[in-house]
Amino acid sequence: MADGHRNEQESRATAGAALAPIRPSAQPPEEPRPPHVGPVSEVAGGVPAVVSTMKHAWGEMGPVRGTRLLLKVNQQHGFDCPGCAWPDPGHRSVAEFCENGAKAVAEEGTTARVTPDFFAQWSVAELSQQTDHWLGKQGRLTHPMVLREGATHYVPISWDEAFALVAEELNALGTPDAACFYTSGRTSNEAAFLYQLFVRQFGTNNLPDCSNMCHESSGTALSETIGIGKGTVTLEDFDKADAIFVIGQNPGTNHPRMLTSLQAAARRGCEIVSINPLPETGLNRFKHPQEVLHLFGSGTALNTLFLQVRINGDVALLQGLAKALLEVEDAKPGSVVARAFIEEKTLGFDAWAAGIRAVNWADVVEGSGVPREQIVAAAEILARSERTIYCWAMGLTQHKNAVANIQEIVNLALLRGSVGRPGAGLCPVRGHSNVQGDRTMGIWERPKDAFLDALSREFGFEPPRHHGMDTVDTIRAMHDGRVQVFFALGGNFLSATPDTEFTAEALRRTRLTVQVSTKLNRAHLVHGRRALILPCLGRTERDVQTGGAQFVTVENSMGMVSASRGAVAPASEHLLSEPAIVARLAEAVLGGRSSVKWSWLVEDYDRVRELITRTIPGFEDFNQRVREPGGFALPNGPREGRFTTASGKAHFTVHELPKLELAPGQLLMMTIRTHDQFNTTVYGLDDRYRGIRNGRRVVLLHPGDMKELGLKEGQVVDLTSHFQGETRVALKFRVVPYNIPRRCAATYFPEANVLVPVDSFAEKSRTPTSKSVVITLSPSPDVGPAS
Ligand SMILES: Nc1nc2c(c(=O)[nH]1)N[C@H]1C(S)=C(S)[C@@H](COP(=O)(O)OP(=O)(O)OC[C@H]3O[C@@H](n4cnc5c(=O)[nH]c(N)nc54)[C@H](O)[C@@H]3O)O[C@H]1N2
Ligand SMILES: Nc1nc2c(c(=O)[nH]1)N[C@H]1C(S)=C(S)[C@@H](COP(=O)(O)OP(=O)(O)OC[C@H]3O[C@@H](n4cnc5c(=O)[nH]c(N)nc54)[C@H](O)[C@@H]3O)O[C@H]1N2
Ligand SMILES: [Mo]
């Protein structure tokens, strides 16, 4: 894409906003006021977390509904938290939720409504001038809505007509591959199974999902090396570990209930090492919001050691750790290397070890930005730990060399024999609450033959065998006209994907965009020639079909499958459940072409689960086992020490140190989450732990770099990204001095997605490089100095 300047002009045009907008804007508006920047929090949780929980829960839902819903979160007969995928403990307390889970529940459980009257009042273009925070605050979608060709406003449409419209467009396509079917990770197993079945009967594997932008790198890295694309630990392992490494993850904000596990571990003497460019508050000290006695103390110290790695310095750092461990082994043979395990269960050790010995310390220190003594100190922790758990998230998965990042962790774990034994293992910490389950159900553009064979056997059709499009392919294909219909089961494709203006153009070129959603978001506002909003039930709501009250199932980050039952009446009588939407869509589109009894299946979700039992390994007796308290665990060979690669062994892998040459004035930028958002859903404008309030368009910089670049605190700057000779611009971000390594910068997602080039993605996993964006900064021309 060579049209970076077009982006700039476009955003400048919408920035004025004095004239009535003509074309809906893909980016949120600029912010009128500077944010308030105060000190970084020393302690996570505590009283402020309790206050924030109540503010969001009661503010959106009122005290009665709010309390009622919160007491059902993650309970045996309640619903699975719609927030992150962190697992639930076996023995649950009455209050099994965190501050940010409460925000997720409040966002869905809100009493505010977006009705047909609302859409009559606001044109699509006018809505696009509002912030993402404002859009979310308008409430739950209540009616199916259509935007007809050339129209400025959405109007109501009946469900039958809506399905007929999708069927008309899909069936008019020259090939089924001219449609893409996106999934976001909140979708239940039942809905996901039906959806992929429908899509494959329609004739394509074009099933991009949020995982493509998330833990795809983990799945790819782990499948290659240990034979399963999932982690190997369970929650109980956290009670037995001697050391826990938390790498490229901010659990205090994104997986707050993980702090409970880390706190318990720290209290019994487990050593916790965090590797991150930022000293994230959650890993520093923690006061459990539900431990009343401790709320006013100083909190539990979590971190034993913090390594402030530079952005994308992890391959260097992890190789440094391995090198230091091999040096300990040389000094004291037999003390570190798990010889018997390596000989019996792995391949490639010698070549790998030779490579690590050949790496020189100067490159490790230079590449990681971490002094050798600190790397050695972390290696000593590893050397004395018999049981180590390695956790990671987006800080590792969203780089060009993301797969290598994760495989370097696998190398370390194999070196110490830390996979497949209690208290130790690999722990990619998943994002969306059912993203892992959706993949298990077949939401994947590259399905295995065995999976397709099972579908073919059970349903008597020949599924397409050629691979489909992932997220990046989908954007490209819409842009150049190969994909004409875009259907999304949840999510916010426009704002979650890279290269916002390019993606917007891609969506605008389609014939039809369809969004199955609970809440209004920007993906409804940047649309194809025609557009539909299909409102659905959320997790929190009772789902009653002709067969009675239903529950759905989800799989958490550790491969446990459990039931989720809604607790309150639906936001509107016009909502359909996701399984019902998929079933009615399939009937409208496939008609007599499908032998599946779609409507009959969704009368009682046990019937869907029965089909899952018959087609997906690990779901034997699904209906019985999921009714047992706590659900059940899916099979996981590596967890039991059986590697499920083709060779039957785990693989050491060799990786080069990534080279990053920044030209003078260039910085490497990561796009991260604030404490007040769930991906593109903005709950509020504060990033409490980082001390930034009432604003999101900020860029965090090292004071030394600010000085060198001649930038002042609070100054308004434009950011330009650089990739293969192309530039992209994001306007008007405020400079915030921060404790971040030199030549590194941080901004918030999704405001900065406009800077992430669509063609910049990880090797093998094709995950957009949202944490490795090369930028320069310049003072915004039409704004005075720091205000
Ligand atoms: N409340 C809340 N919960 C969430 C979400 C949410 O938005 N809000 N999102 C959910 C989803 S889908 C996901 S995937 C997860 C995301 O959970 P996280 O991965 O924790 O989310 P990010 O904010 O992207 O944070 C990445 C962390 O990695 C660090 N980092 C960035 N680059 C590097 C690097 O090169 N090396 C290292 N070592 N660290 C780096 C950042 O400083 C930051 O601390 O959370 C899930 N849970
Ligand atoms: N720059 C940058 N970009 C990123 C990331 C990053 O770190 N940096 N992170 C990436 C990651 S890890 C992820 S997972 C993706 C997230 O990408 P998505 O999953 O596509 O985005 P979300 O913001 O989670 O989707 C929110 C929308 O989902 C809808 N929704 C909520 N609940 C339900 C439900 O129960 N059913 C249905 N049908 N709809 C529902 C609501 O309408 C809401 O507006 O973003 C990616 N994008
Ligand atoms: Mo994610």
TrEMBL record:
UniProt cofactor(s): [4Fe-4S] cluster; Mo-bis(molybdopterin guanine dinucleotide)
Bias type Basic and acidic residues, positions: 1-11
Region (Disordered): 1-43
Keyword rRNA processing appears in the UniProt entry: no
Residue span, Molybdopterin oxidoreductase domain: 140-513
CDD domains xrefs: MopB_CT_ydeP (cd02787), MopB_ydeP (cd02767)
Gene3D superfamilies recorded: 2.40.40.20, 3.40.50.740, Dimethylsulfoxide Reductase, domain 2
Top-level division of the source organism's lineage: Bacteria
InterPro entries xref list: Asp_de-COase-like_dom_sf (IPR009010), MopB_CT_YdeP (IPR037951), MoPterin_dinucl-bd_dom (IPR006657), Mopterin_OxRdtase (IPR006656), Mopterin_OxRdtse_a_bac (IPR010046), Prok_molybdopt-oxidoreductase (IPR050123), YdeP_MopB (IPR041953)
Any single Pfam family the record assigns to this protein: Molybdopterin
UniProt record similarity statement: Belongs to the prokaryotic molybdopterin-containing oxidoreductase family.
Protein name: FdhF/YdeP family oxidoreductase
Species of the source: Pyxidicoccus parkwayensis
